[in-house]
Amino acid sequence: MKVQYRITEDDYANAARFAAWRHFIARPSALRLITGGIIIALLGIGLWTLPGLALSLSFGIAVFAILYTASLLFQTPRRARRHYRQYKDIQEPITLELTDAGTKFSTPDGEAILPWSKVFQWRQNDRFILIYRMPILFHIVPKSIAREGFDIPLLVRRLAEHVGPER
């Protein structure tokens, strides 16, 4: 089963947002955990020693959390769009072939065979399947290729069988 598609700038930006958001939610880094702990400790100390400042401190923390999350949602796609315009290979047609042994991604300049045993993880949303070679390197498979005859449910089944559940 073989299909050819192109990754658009919107696809690239939306896939980057999806990957960043899932990474942010699913894997809290030690830095975020330490920062969260410090903020909670400061809030506790503020409530105990300066009850009048506690409301101001909690408001400031809430604003910081909202701005940090917003930067994740808006900065990631902006950066991804800039990278897309610089990364000429992603703008070329990609051919995806599903085989019993894995997936084969081809472009005019070469091909990459990705056996199931080398897939680090995979995840999906309503628009994409992201097939990870390593924690931050992934292939984008738009689900819209189903219109070209590609069997998306079969790809998902094979990923689940050979790689494991979506993460």
Q: Which strand order does the major sheet show?
A: 1-2-3-4
Distance between the termini: 25 Å
Number of helices: 4
CATH class assignment of the largest domain:
Mainly Beta
Would you list the SSEs in sequence order as H and E? EHHHEEEEEEH
**Rg measurement, Å:** 21 Å
Number of strand segments: 7
Characterize the overall form: elongated
- CATH homologous superfamily identity of the largest domain: Pleckstrin-homology domain (PH domain)/Phosphotyrosine-binding domain (PTB)
Residue share in β-strands: 15-25%
Structural class: alpha+beta
Domains, number: 2
- Main β sheet profile: 4 strands, antiparallel
Approximate helicity band: 40-55%
Mean pLDDT equals 84
Topology:
Elements: E1 2-5, H1 9-26, H2 30-49, H3 51-86, E2 94-98, E3 102-107, E4 110-115, E5 121-124, E6 128-134, E7 137-142, H4 152-162
Antiparallel strand pairs: 1-2, 2-3, 3-4, 5-6, 6-7
Helix pairs in contact: 1-3, 2-3
Summarize the entry for a quick read.
This protein has 167 residues and is of the alpha+beta class.
Structure commentary:
A hairpin with a 3-residue loop joins β2 and β3 (102-107). A four-stranded antiparallel sheet has the order 1-2-3-4, with no helix packed on it. A three-stranded antiparallel sheet has the order 5-6-7, covered by helices on one side. With 167 residues, it is α+β, with helices and mostly antiparallel strands. The chain has two domains: 2-8 and 89-162, Pleckstrin-homology domain (PH domain)/Phosphotyrosine-binding domain (PTB) (PH-domain like, Roll), CATH 2.30.29.30; 9-86, no CATH class. It is built from four helices and seven strands, in the order βαααββββββα. The mean pLDDT is 84. It has helices at residues 9-26, 30-49, 51-86, 152-162, and strands at 2-5, 94-98, 102-107, 110-115, 121-124, 128-134, 137-142. The chain is elongated. It starts with a strand and ends in a 5-residue tail after the last helix.
